[in-house]
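As agreed, record copied across for absentees:
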Amino acid sequence: MTTTGAGAGAAIEDRVFAALANATRREVLRLLREEGPQPVQALADHFDMRRPSLSEHLKVLREAGLVSEQRSGRQRIYRLEAAPLAEVQDWLHPYERFWRQRLRGLGELLDRMPDDDRS
């Protein structure tokens, strides 16, 4: 992911993060990851919403590059596209490293503190 904050790259990043911000869309991605490509109706069966509402969520995921759509007769089959998620992971990696160092430091501090065994 780029760090310019402007331009086409930033717009794509914004779409990916916006898509991931919604719990329904994250659940769609989980379903596609665990169960493989699925038609819209199979995905819709997992949600308590009308199919047009789910179609809007799928549109957001498609525009973010997180899913692809393939027509098979009258059905639309959706498939997970993981490449944008790898970019998110790359972006998050420095923050993960930061928190690991902080927690390690906290653990070391707690290990140095005397136990309070007074009962």
